[in-house]
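Quick one: NADH dehydrogenase subunit 4L from Mecistocirrus digitatus, structure tokens please.
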Amino acid sequence: MWFEFFIFIIFLFMSLFMIFFKWYRLIFILIALEFLMLSVFMKLIYDVVEMMFFYFMCFSVMSSVLGMVILVGGMKFYGSDYSVY
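--- reply ---
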């Protein structure tokens, strides 16, 4: 049980540090949000029923696809992936 909590804390701090220190590039923000989603997923995987597992997986996939669409759109129209233009 403590191992899952330890992994959750590692992913949580790694994602928060990435957001704090590398906020100027959109790709780093998307990676940090994926780590944050993974940490929440690993925390909730033992506490929810199976249908909530699939609901959470669908939500995380949709948010990942939306982030990639925003990244590609920003690259197409602005030419870079800076989060502050």
